[in-house]
Design brief:
Length: 83
């Protein structure tokens, strides 16, 4: 399972994984395709190292390789405010 870590301005380290990222092979591909929105976004779950709550985001499907750490941290902060 691929995961990314990012540290926000509050010095909280977040570990982010794409939903269904633990599934491999055809099952993983099918689950990921079903979870993708019409806008090409996928569900991503970010879990904090400290006392903050887990945040669920919808990000572009290429988020893992192409979203900067700063933009990911900003998305997490926005996701926290929506909860």
């Amino acid at each position: 399972m691929k995961q990314r870590e990012v540290t926000d301005k509050e010095n909280t380290t977040w570990t982010c994984v794409q939903a269904y990222g633990a599934l491999e092979g055809k099952a993983g591909e099918k689950a990921a395709a079903l979870a993708e929105t019409e806008a090409g976004k996928v569900p991503v779950v970010c879990t904090p190292s400290g006392g903050a709550q887990t945040v669920r985001l919808e990000l572009a499907k290429d988020w893992f390789d192409n979203l900067s750490a700063e933009d990911l941290a900003t998305a997490i902060t926005a996701g926290q405010q929506e909860q």
